């Protein structure tokens, strides 16, 4: 009679999987380096009549567009990395292309454009600073959205949007939570939803005066929010309404 065993079934080791991933990464990097080598070889062997065009147009396009695109497809996308990982490859392509650049038609054109727009270039530093400031605001708002979640207790539903809006909605005024926009005038709605997130409308039995994103106050009868788990949020609010 065969006897059963309580020993666990053998499992495959993760080491071969990691080794395969490392080999694929090395192969992808080798392909990217091969593309660099092809561009360098072309720049060295191109006829003299086309040398200026090759090193000033064709090679920079390959190193700053085609090679980063290949790196994205072979490395970034396959390994689930952020698309920002392509930027160092673009910068490396720019540095390599700048070392190969030769005097040609583009250089006089660039000098002429700089001379004709001398006053405009003085605006670049403040515009860059303003853009950086706006980017920091966007990052701070996204971080505040994570640190300021929706709160539900036995009496109040606290609605928040980043660091700009925080309103306490009495649960006695809440009639339900749904995905469809309620049948109320648009002015009586307050949309605090995140772009791309499914809507989650909180419907009120009577108007509630709240502060809008512009800082003004007006009465609303529906508020749209974007909880991480809309189904769990609906169940939680529904349980408090019973």
From TrEMBL:
<feature type="transmembrane region" description="Helical">
    <location>
        <begin position="81"/>
        <end position="101"/>
    </location>
</feature>
<feature type="transmembrane region" description="Helical">
    <location>
        <begin position="53"/>
        <end position="74"/>
    </location>
</feature>
<keyword id="KW-0472">Membrane</keyword>
<protein>
    <submittedName>
        <fullName>Uncharacterized protein</fullName>
    </submittedName>
</protein>
<keyword id="KW-0812">Transmembrane</keyword>
<feature type="transmembrane region" description="Helical">
    <location>
        <begin position="121"/>
        <end position="140"/>
    </location>
</feature>
<keyword id="KW-1133">Transmembrane helix</keyword>
């Amino acid at each position: 009679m065969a006897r059963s065993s309580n020993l666990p079934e053998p499992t495959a080791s993760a080491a071969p999987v990691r080794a395969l991933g490392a080999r694929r990464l090395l192969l992808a990097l080798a392909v990217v380096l091969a593309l660099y080598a092809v561009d360098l070889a072309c720049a060295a062997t191109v006829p003299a009549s086309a040398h200026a065009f090759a090193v000033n147009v064709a090679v920079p396009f390959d190193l700053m567009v085609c090679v980063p695109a290949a790196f994205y497809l072979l490395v970034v996308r396959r390994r689930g990395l952020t698309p920002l990982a392509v930027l160092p490859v673009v910068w490396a392509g720019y540095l390599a292309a700048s070392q190969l650049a030769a005097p040609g038609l583009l250089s006089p054109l660039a000098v002429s454009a700089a001379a004709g727009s001398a006053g405009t270039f003085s605006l670049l530093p403040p515009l860059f600073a303003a853009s950086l400031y706006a980017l920091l605001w966007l990052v701070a708002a996204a971080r505040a959205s994570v640190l300021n979640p929706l709160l539900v207790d036995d009496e109040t539903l606290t609605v928040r949007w980043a660091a700009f809006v925080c309103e306490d909605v009495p649960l006695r005024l809440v009639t339900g939570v749904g995905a469809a926009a309620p049948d109320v005038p648009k002015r009586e709605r307050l949309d605090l939803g995140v772009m791309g997130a499914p809507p989650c409308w909180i419907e009120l039995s009577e108007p509630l005066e709240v502060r809008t994103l512009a800082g003004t106050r007006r009465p609303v009868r529906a508020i749209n929010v974007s909880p991480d788990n809309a189904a769990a949020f609906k169940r939680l609010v529904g349980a408090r309404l019973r």
